[in-house]
Amino acid sequence: MIRLSQKGWNNVMIYTVLILVALFIGLPEYLKQGRNEPQPQLISINQTLLALHFPQHQIERAGPGWRSQPAVLSEEQLTTLLQHWQQSSLPEKSPLDPINPVLISEVTIWLTGKPAQQQWQLYQAGDYQWLKALDTDFWYRLPAGQADLLFPSVLR
Fold this sequence. Notes:
This protein has helices at about 5-35, 75-85, 145-150; strands spanning about 50-55, 60, 65-70, 100-110, 120-125, 130-135, 140. The chain is of the alpha+beta class and about 160 residues long.
């Protein structure tokens, strides 16, 4: 057995507790960073997009192509918009809710394999734009420019 004074054993206990706390807090964060997991997508890659319904506009699959009612987007613009929705990753959940958010637009998304639709709302709060799913209480702060790709000003 190691012979230490009372003060020496106290120091050993203090350092042991500090090391354990650092391991319990730091190790999960380190492991989370090391996984390199892909960020979740707005639309799962296992599902096919059938329709996007904005407040004044509907975009729906028409055979192999797409149609917009009323027709405010060209075929190329429709394809680009749908690619953004299908390929965009979901930003990390914000730990804080936005302060005084103002609703800018909303969209209802119809997907294959889902009995119900997804509903997303776009908000402006301060200098940032936020995305919120109606079925959850999570807020996602969008990177600059992504809101314009998902919610073009023509469709708002």
